[in-house]
């Protein structure tokens, strides 16, 4: 089995990140909030953007903006070249066999909706089953629930163990007879990194396809779709230093060839008559209308930035920072509940927490006065929240520009919150 | 920047720690209404017992932050024993207090106002403890927390309008 070793980063001795230098690339980190330095701990929701990304987008608008795949003049050709180059960068990032396997979408939500709408409507009929997990983001639940309502397909769920891992004890029975298995690579609430390769193999043995929601994975770990064994994998640009409005569906080319178009319009056709149309080749068949060109180019620059750091170095940094945070927070706050796996090597830099009986909303309000940004709420994973028996958690999450001083600021702010509500 | 004290007034924290009218009522005769804040997952369950155009009893269940829970608690004290018309007037007055950011969007409220018995012409009912929630408007994202219980009450009052509400 092609097990993926999440601790490879540490073993290959990736260089530590120079966080000070990285921070100087992010203009927003100089902003003051309430007279305090900005302590941004909400990258799992959306990451900040380095100057390199902002500059790439501005440069594009200032020097070569034109619609893509249309004009035959120089700047239009240059716009098209940059747009398609961004696609190639994404293909290399996830080790796709070809850039033709990369479909630009608005975000990962649209990527999954594309699969449900196009592949799902073509291949699933009443009684067919799709296997998901209890820890999915709504983005990988609601499109399937909509299809279930429309088509009468059956949805099954992999449940969770007490420490927030997928309970695979019953996997053989659950996967038997399903047509698709859809799993988040990493939980946006618990940080749990799921055994994607193992699940993909189980799906394939059962004759099913495997879809990965990699929104929290691609930004943080070296991703190799061939090693993971996925058939579909979606991710979203704004969580990986890129702009909003751009995401990606990677899918096996033969699957894309077979799938009917998603949205209809310009750009996605090769011929249109009054009585019919011929779709364009993949991947353009799935990209109706003028795409988010500057956003794609910005995402390409974000990929350059991340690969410049090295994804193994990014992972190593986050494992170390998460270890520090788990120890520091537990030592400073004995009454703090931290959800999810205890071992930093099997989780990402996402820490959902509860402090005594202070509600997550109230907690994050107090943290805000200290300039500390965390997310409070259900994190678009209500079934998971029900499993945890809570309506909301406060969630701190890390990225390349965070360091131990941010964790210390969080810990101090938690102490202030306890004082306020104590 | 408004301080935390503007938001978390002592009386709010008191209602949060010692919520009034907490519990459930048997349905029927009472009716049960649910309110959700889809942004944060807060939930309010309102049990409303209306007889002869009067709120004879109500109870609150559910979970949420200090603002949503204290607002629910204050709402329950303010509305209990009131006639439906009095409860509606309180609802309007509370929404007006919170409406700085919602006002222009909330066409329904404006309609009520235009119908003659709306917030403009009418004498505002005394708000009592509810005044403490005034500070919430300085924290726009928390307005939804404060109005959750009231929106749920609005459902209940609508339900009580026709004779058969949801059970
Ligand atoms: C695991 C997971 N899936 C899907 C999403 C949705 O991302 P987007 O809103 O960019 O489509 C998120 C982020 O919110 C996520 O964490």
Task: Please tell me what the overall shape of chain B is.
Answer: globular
Helix content of chain A: 25-40%
How many individual domains of chain A?
A: 2
Provide mean pLDDT of chain B, rounded.
Answer: 80
Class based on secondary structure composition and strand pairing of chain A = alpha/beta
Q: Give the termini separation of chain A.
A: 51 Å
Plain-language structure description:
The complex is a heterodimer of chains A (422) and B (167). With 422 residues, chain A is an alpha/beta fold. Chain A has 2 domains: 156 residues, Aspartate Aminotransferase, domain 1 (Alpha-Beta Complex), CATH 3.90.1150; 252 residues, Type I PLP-dependent aspartate aminotransferase-like (Major domain) (Aspartate Aminotransferase, domain 2). Chain A has 15 helices and 17 strands. Chain A has a 7-stranded mixed β-sheet with strand order 4-10-9-8-7-5-6, with helices on both faces. A 4-stranded antiparallel β-sheet of chain A has the order 13-14-17-16, covered by helices on one side. Chain A has a two-stranded antiparallel ribbon with strand order 1-2. Chain A is globular. The termini of chain A are far apart. Chain B has a single domain, classed as Sufe protein. Chain: A (Alpha-Beta Complex). Chain B starts with a helix and ends in a 6-residue tail after the last helix. Chain B is globular. The C terminus of chain B is likely disordered. Chain B is built from 6 helices and 3 strands; from the N terminus they run ααβββαααα. Chains A and B meet through α13 of A and loops of B. The structure holds pyridoxal-5'-phosphate. The site of pyridoxal-5'-phosphate has 13 residues of chain A, from α5.
